[in-house]
C-alpha cells in the first residue's frame, strides 16, 4: 500500500507539472502577442500624431523665441539643462557600451542568468525554470546534505526529482572529515555535525523511497569538503559556490547553457561532475543493504563498508 500510494503521488506530481508547463507556455505566448500588439499600437499613434506636432511647433516657435531671445537668465538656464542632458546621455551610452561588452563575455561563457540567493521572487522564478527544464530529463546533482534541495517540498529540485527520468546524486558523507570541517566553519545550527547526520539520513530515506517506487536513482557519498553545488539538467547547469563560512543559500546562483563556443563553461563543469562521479575513491550507497560499495574504474565491485562506520566500530569494541 505504501508503494502504491507513493506511485500515485508521483503520477499526480507529474500530471500537475505537465499541466503547469502547458499553462505557463500559453501565458507566455499570450504575453508575447500582447506586447507586440501594444508596440504596434504605440508606434502607429506616434506616427499619426507627428504632422499635428510639427504644425504646432512651426506656428508657435517664432512667437516663443521673440519672447525669450533677450532673456539672458533663461538662455543660461537652457545651456545648463542641455549640458546636464548631454552628460547624462553620454554616461548612459558609456554604461550601455560597457554592459554590452560584459554581456558578450557572459554569452561566450554560456551564462544565461545570475542571481543572489536572497530575492524571494528570483528564487521562485528559478525553481519554476528548474521544474520546467527537468521534466523527463536526467538529473545530475552534487550537494552537501540534500535535505533542503531534495527532501523539502519547497526545495528547488524536489519536484524535479519526482518528474525526471534518471537521477545521479552526490552527497556529503556525514562521517567524513569534510563533513566535520564544514560543520565547524559554517556557524549556523543547521550546519552542526549532528544536524548534518540527521539531514543526510533523511535525504537517503527519501531517495530510498523513490528507489522502491521504481525510480532510477543512484547515490554516491564523497568525503571532501563541499566545493561546488552543481545541478545538470540536459543542456543547462545550475552552479553555486560553497563559501567556507557562509550558508550556500546566501551565495549567488549561476545558470549556464551548453553551446559550441570554446569559451563556454558548461563543458568543464560537466566534466567536473563526471570526474567526481567516476572517482573510484567515492563509494556508491546501496539502498538495499545500506552499505557503501567501492568499485574500480571498470565498474567492478572491490569491497563494501558499513555506512554507519562509527557505530560499527563502537559495536566491535564493545564485543572485545
Number of helices in the DSSP assignment: 9
Helix content: 55-70%
User: Can you tell me the overall shape?
Assistant: elongated
CATH architecture of the largest domain: 2-Layer Sandwich
- The secondary-structure class comes to alpha+beta
Mean pLDDT, all residues: 79
CATH superfamily of the largest domain: Endonuclease Chain A
Rg on CA atoms, Å: 29 Å
CATH topology of the largest domain, anyone? Endonuclease, Chain A
For the record, give the distance between the C-alpha atoms at the N and C termini, rounded to a whole number: 43 Å
Low-pLDDT residue intervals, each spanning 5 or more residues: 311-320
Notes on the structure:
- By secondary structure, the chain is an alpha+beta fold.
- It has 3 domains: 1-70; 74-108; 111-319, Endonuclease Chain A (Endonuclease, Chain A, 2-Layer Sandwich), CATH 3.30.870.
- Helices cover 57% and strands 17% of the residues.
- It contains 9 helices and 10 strands.
- The chain has helices at residues 2-68, 72-108, 120-133, 147-151, 158-163, 177-185, 193-212, 266-277, 309-319; strands spanning 111-115, 138-142, 166-172, 216-222, 228-233, 236-241, 253-257, 284-286, 291-295, 301-306.
- The strands form 2 sheets. Strands 1-7-6-5-2-3-4 form a 7-stranded mixed β-sheet, sandwiched between helices.
- A hairpin with a 2-residue loop joins strand 5 (228-233) and strand 6 (236-241).
- It is elongated and about 95 Å long.
- The relative contact order is 0.10.
- The model is unreliable at 311-320 (pLDDT under 50).
Amino acid at each position: 500500500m505504501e508503494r502504491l500510494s507513493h506511485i500515485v503521488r508521483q503520477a499526480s506530481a507529474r500530471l500537475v507539472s505537465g499541466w503547469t508547463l502547458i499553462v505557463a507556455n500559453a501565458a507566455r505566448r499570450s504575453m508575447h502577442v500582447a506586447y507586440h500588439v501594444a508596440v504596434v499600437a504605440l508606434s502607429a499613434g506616434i506616427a499619426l500624431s507627428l504632422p499635428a506636432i510639427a504644425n504646432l511647433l512651426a506656428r508657435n516657435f517664432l512667437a516663443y523665441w521673440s519672447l525669450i531671445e533677450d532673456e539672458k537668465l533663461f538662455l543660461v538656464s537652457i545651456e545648463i539643462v542641455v549640458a546636464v542632458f548631454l552628460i547624462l546621455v553620454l554616461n548612459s551610452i558609456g554604461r550601455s557600451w560597457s554592459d554590452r561588452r560584459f554581456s558578450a563575455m557572459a554569452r561566450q561563457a554560456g551564462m544565461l542568468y545570475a542571481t543572489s540567493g536572497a530575492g524571494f521572487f528570483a528564487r521562485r522564478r528559478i525553481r519554476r525554470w528548474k521544474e520546467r527544464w527537468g521534466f523527463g530529463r536526467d538529473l545530475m546533482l552534487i550537494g552537501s546534505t540534500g535535505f533542503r534541495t531534495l527532501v523539502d517540498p519547497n526545495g528547488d529540485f524536489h519536484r524535479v526529482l519526482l518528474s525526471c527520468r534518471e537521477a545521479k546524486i552526490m552527497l556529503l558523507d556525514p562521517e567524513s572529515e569534510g563533513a566535520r570541517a564544514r560543520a565547524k566553519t559554517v556557524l549556523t545550527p543547521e550546519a552542526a555535525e549532528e544536524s548534518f547526520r540527521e539531514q543526510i539520513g533523511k535525504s537517503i530515506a527519501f531517495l530510498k523511497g523513490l528507489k522502491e517506487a521504481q525510480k532510477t536513482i543512484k547515490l554516491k557519498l564523497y568525503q571532501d569538503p563541499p566545493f561546488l553545488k552543481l545541478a545538470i539538467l540536459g543542456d543547462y547547469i545550475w552552479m553555486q559556490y560553497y563559501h567556507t563560512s557562509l550558508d550556500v543559500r546566501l551565495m549567488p546562483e549561476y545558470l549556464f547553457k551548453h553551446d559550441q563556443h570554446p569559451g563556454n563553461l558548461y563543458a568543464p563543469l560537466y566534466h567536473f561532475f563526471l570526474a567526481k562521479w567516476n572517482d573510484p575513491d567515492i563509494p556508491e550507497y546501496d539502498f538495499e543493504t545500506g552499505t557503501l560499495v567501492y568499485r574500480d574504474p571498470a565498474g567492478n565491485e572491490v569491497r563494501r563498508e558499513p555506512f554507519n562506520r562509527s557505530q560499527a566500530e563502537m559495536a566491535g569494541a564493545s564485543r572485545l
